[in-house]
Amino acid sequence: MMGSVRAITVLPGQAGTARLDDIPEPPLDDGPVLVETLAIGVCGTDVEIVRGDYGTAPPGAERLVIGHESLGRVLDAPAGGDLAPGDLVVGIVRRPDPVPCGNCAVGEWDMCRNGKYTERGIGGRDGYASDRYRIRPEYAVKVASDLDQVGVLLEPTSVVAKAWEHIERIGRRATWQPSKVVITGAGPIGLLAALLGRQRGFAVTVFDQVTDGPKPGLVHDLGATYRTDGLDDACADADVIIECTGVSSLVLEVLGRTAPDGILCLTGVSSGGRSLTIDAGLVNRELVLGNDVVFGSVNANRRHYEAAADALDRADRSWLGRLITRRVPVEQFADALVRHPDDVKPIIDFSKTP
Length: 354
Ligand code: BGC
Hints:
The protein is an alpha/beta fold and 354 residues long. 27% of the residues lie in helices and 25% in strands. It folds into two domains: 174 residues, Medium-chain alcohol dehydrogenases, catalytic domain (Quinone Oxidoreductase, Chain A, domain 1, Alpha-Beta Complex), CATH 3.90.180.10; 139 residues, NAD(P)-binding Rossmann-like Domain (Rossmann fold), CATH 3.40.50.720.
């Protein structure tokens, strides 16, 4: 159809409504940079949206274009700017709230105070899972041209770049010479958190349940240790724990378990609805007597995307490539939204535009 693009859309709040639609060409209002989509990464958030458990459509619309992890190529950009046709770009997910709060006002939308932010492909704003999209240049981050096969990993990397930045800022409250890092969960977030930990020269141990598939080898090839048991002992020694599963029992298992002055960063978004009993007094005692910090971390601002682009640029391309375990043609997008046993990061391939 002339004047239209293919887009993966859902009716937010309703399961089983995802479909490949024809929608009008992206509106000029979205920005002067026109981008052709090459790939869209799929994560737990997308699965929740497609299940009808998360996500909202843009104001006045019924359907939401999904896709917040993206890689695209610039087709058109204003002359004299930082972007030119042919550049590889990744779109930032969050937009500041319209008030704006103190953080959104200075570009720290990842720390929005009033919850009125929007997120492309997730909440109140169409995403990137369409043949073409438009964007304002300040929300498009350039990636090295030889990252064309793996640049779609930038968005999840930005999430861990922010987590690491905050860990380091918290660490500066006193003299702090961390050396041991524990990561729970060897999904994309856990593995990318491990990559950034290794790039900082730390001894990293990654815990996961599976004993086969690609995860143990991916961890090993980072020079990190892969373990399926012994979490309690490893935590007792850890300066930093990054919890990347959101599994409530695991969150409780690592809470207050770091070495003295330890930092526990929580990155997993749990679904809730499950009650567990804890000895709150004991946990409090461990946190206080250990000067421990527990904090949550979500999303990323432009500074973190740039740090992430740097981290990917320094990483081994073939290791990054192994994180992408399936490339599903856009016509079969539904298959990318279903977990396969050996999945790390499935992506939806838009590169063969008809
Ligand atoms: C995205 C973040 C987003 C969060 C909450 C995650 O999957 O990577 O950018 O802020 O979901 O919506």
